[in-house]
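Consider this record:
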Amino acid sequence: MISIQKMMPGSCVRRLATGSLVFILLLAAGLVAADTGTEEPLDDARSILKAMSDYVSGQQTIELTFDSDIEVITPELEKIQFTNSGSALLSRPNKLYAHRVGGYAEVELFFDGATVSINGRSVNGYAQLEAEGSIDDLIHALRAGHGVALPGADLLLSNSYEMLMADVLEAKHIGSGVIGGVECEHLALRNFDTDWQLWVEAGDRPIPRKMVITSKTINSAPQYTIRITSWKTDVEPGPDAFIFNPPEGAERLDHNALIHLDELPQDHPTGGSQ
């Protein structure tokens, strides 16, 4: 889910392209432009996005699972994709658990409203930071102070519409699409240096189903993609759902070690001229 590493657009999309981690430099928010001839007026895209934001922020608890893909560009201009899966459980305003597993790291995040704990199962180590406040505060603090991009997390913010629309130059309602057998409204939005697409479930449950984020400033336009594979709001988190207990023998790490819990291997191929 997340990369703590990562589970973001608007102003966050720009941060993806300028963040401190290598994979952040290779990603941002996205659309592959296409002349479909079916684009709807601007207000439709905005109203669909606002409906999604209002619905999601109105849910007290959310439990979801997801799959994500990250692309990097090698010096030989070969595009390589890395895949991950994960889950998240949140209870507003200030409780969050997230888990992500890929081929190179397995990471958990626990947030109880006062402390955030990141547990690297793959390295048997953990880091803890004081982070008193809401889920929104946590996401902003991790991005601003620790170089953690958390792409996709803007979808869960209490003010996601404002964050997603920040710096948007153009917004389009492309039409219908189907994600996991579910009919969705397909939106395409553009910033100065990034484009992004969002598929929102049609009907009275306008939840995000898929996001594609594409950098326009990196050669070969690498993408980040996240697909929501399940979504529940009728959940009752257990009393220990957001409490972290260090595993026996786990080493406490400096927070700078978070970069080693990436969604990419540490020696992954990078490059590509801009």
User: Anything to note?
Assistant: Residues 70 and 224 are 5 Å apart (CA to CA).
